[in-house]
Amino acid sequence: MVNEKGAFCVKIEKGAVDPAMDIQRPQKQTMSAFEVSLRFLGTGSAFSKKYGNTSALLTVTPRGGVSRTLLIDCGRTTPDDLARSGYVWTDIDAIFISHLHGDHIYGLEEAGFMGRYVLNRKPHLILPDAVIAADLWEHVLQGTMQQGGERDLTIDDYFTWETADPDSLAFSFNGLRIRVYRTRHIENKRSYGLIIGDRPNIVYTADTLFDEEQLAAFAAQGSTAIFHDCQLLHFDNQVHTSLDQLETLDASIRARVYLMHYGDNLEQFEQRISGGGFRIATRHQTYQFEVGASPV
After folding, report:
1. Which residues pair with 192 in a beta bridge?
2. Which phi and psi (to 5°) does residue 160 adopt?
3. Residues 181-211: pLDDT tens digits?
4. Residues 64-101 pLDDT 10s
5. Which residue from 28, 38, 62, 196 has the least number of CB within 10 angstroms?
6. CB atoms within 10 A of CB 6
7. What's the fold here for domain 32-293?
8. 178 within 8 A of 171, measured Cβ to Cβ
9. Which parts of the chain are beta strand (E)?
């Protein structure tokens, strides 16, 4: 759907999945197939100077339909990474934000300013819940974007936006149901990952602590690829999953895992990573999949 400014707007429709972490229920409806691809603009940690902040372009194509592209997270380096990859803001149909840390959101200022003052086209945001939606403006963007001349501007002056349905914890993007799920990252801070499609599906964890049971459940529910946060060194009181922890997974799960959000010392660990059966999500690389989709 396109609004009066020419911005692509994703319409939320309620799904038929139980809330929160219920990923065990088998799908009973007739599935259709969608082609999806992930192209990484950046694959590094918050402090990476070599690989850029982790963000990816998720392109969803219904069989025989038109492709739409969702930018997953928009961090400090993302606008430059987007340009280096040959993309412009008008190539993006919507932006999903997993949580409110600078390496996932600081690029939104450029997106909003470009939309308002250059492109005359509001970017569309998809946010996991209403708390993150409110905090994004009030605690992050307002300080640099509120002043606009005769009146104070609001988030609605820069963006169109929606939240995932609070009951199903899902949103529809180009006809494909994408579920959000809570992750443990920082205590008392909301953060989410994505389950893209139904059986089969792919998982994008964004930033998360290690959760072995959850990963086993994903694999049992048909996740053919799991793009997972990975801190290469293990520390006390860490807020990311370490490679040491991921190495404790069953080999059948490790074979589905693509590591992302790693440090600039990746080369020191490449042999160990490949020996453990993992794959590395690589900047500017496109990963293609077919996922199932129940009607939305």
Report:
1. 182
2. -95, 150
3. 999 998 889 999 999 999 899 999 999 999 9
4. 899 999 999 999 999 999 999 999 999 999 999 999 99
5. 28
6. 11
7. Metallo-beta-lactamase; Chain A (3.60.15)
8. yes
9. 32-42, 55-62, 68-72, 94-96, 124-127, 160-163, 170-173, 176-182, 192-196, 201-204, 223-229, 257-260, 279-280, 286-293
